[in-house]
Design goal:
Blueprint: E1 7-11, H1 16-27, E2 31-36, H2 39-49, E3 53-57, H3 63-80, E4 84-89, H4 109-130, E5 147-152, H5 156-159, H6 165-185, E6 190-197, H7 203-206, H8 210-218, H9 229-241, E7 249-252
Parallel strand pairs: 1-2, 1-4, 2-3, 4-5, 5-6, 6-7
Helix pairs in contact: 1-9, 3-4, 4-6
Bound molecules: nicotinamide-adenine-dinucleotide.
Nicotinamide-adenine-dinucleotide binds at residues 11-12, 14-18, 36-38, 58-61, 90-93, 118, 152, 154, 197, 199-200, 202-205.
């Protein structure tokens, strides 16, 4: 699908992998609707990139917030007349914790809900609300394609590490949803793909200790470095452009398999 003159809705677009995707799709002629909790960063990105971008403050774990952000971005799309061609729900959080701690206390349910509501329900909610505005567009591509959903899974969907129970559950769900969405949306000419990065440089991983980051770098086969935003964004671009990519979760990990212990 062509990127130029189509709108891409990107949650988590104010930082890290989402931001790299915003920059890349914008550089290739796309219109970008950024949804993020962080209004300061989101507005900064819009003033930097200027034309063809808009920021909508939203908490993807809050259904009313997602709903009002989608209504606002749909108004923007009506104004620009550049129909929604893609949804990239990249907003996500880690928040590690084992189900039971060393004092034999179960993890607070709110900690599990926080991760699941952002990484799983928030992803489904954003896609769900954008879809009615994609299924009704006039197909512009030779195959009758209308759009693509590119979700962000993780290597935790395959080899989750200790303390990643909620995160792995959410990212495993994203991986499992991919084929179902591809099947459900095929009749509309909408594809669904997900990308499973390993350790990538971003706001999320910058918060890890130097020791953990060094150990993670040691488990890469090749290249022996963390992934960069640009590596991720190029994969998203390929997912948008290649119509045969559908229903698959693609590992983007330099052949890394996350170990149980670092
Ligand atoms: N960086 C990695 O190594 C890595 C690996 C695998 C998967 N991922 C996934 O990539 C995605 C992007 O993460 P990142 O590493 O770029 O992190 P990041 O922290 O740099 O960016 C995440 C963005 O999401 C936003 N966000 C967080 N909670 C939100 C909410 N409730 N509502 C709206 N926006 C919210 C943040 O404000 C931030 O701008 C996440 O889904 C993450 O799980 C990252």
């Amino acid at each position: 699908m062509q990127i130029k003159d189509r709108t891409f809705v990107i949650s988590g677009g104010a930082s890290g992998l989402g931001l790299a995707t915003v920059r890349d799709l914008h550089a290739h002629g796309g219109y970008i609707a950024i949804l993020d909790l962080n209004a300061e960063n989101g507005n900064k990105v819009v003033s930097e990139l200027g034309d063809r971008t808009a920021f909508f403050e939203a908490d993807v774990s809050s259904p009313p917030s997602v709903s009002s952000a989608v209504s606002a971005l749909v108004e923007w799309v009506k104004h620009t007349k550049k129909s929604i061609g893609g949804v990239i729900p990249a907003a996500g959080v880690g928040f590690p914790g084992k189900l039971i701690d060393r004092h034999n206390e179960p993890i607070p349910l709110e900690n599990l809900e926080l991760v699941l509501n952002i990484n799983l329900r928030g992803v489904l909610d954003l896609i769900r609300l954008c879809l009615p505005h994609m299924t009704t567009t006039t197909p512009t591509e030779p195959d009758g394609e209308r759009g693509v959903i590119v979700m962000v899974s993780s290597s935790a969907a395959y080899d989750g590490q200790p303390g990643q129970v909620a995160y792995a559950a959410s990212k495993g769900a994203v991986r499992s949803m991919t084929l179902v969405l591809a099947r459900d949306l095929a009749q509309y000419g909408i594809r669904a793909v997900s990308i499973a990065p390993s350790y990538f440089e971003s706001g999320m991983t910058a918060a890890m200790s130097q020791k953990v980051r060094k150990s993670l770098e040691g488990v890469f086969e090749f290249p022996r470095r963390p992934g960069k935003g640009d590596d991720f964004a190029r994969m998203v671009r390929h997912c948008v452009e290649n119509p045969m990519l559908n229903g698959e979760c693609i590992r983007l990990d330099g052949a890394t398999r996350m170990p149980s212990r670092l």
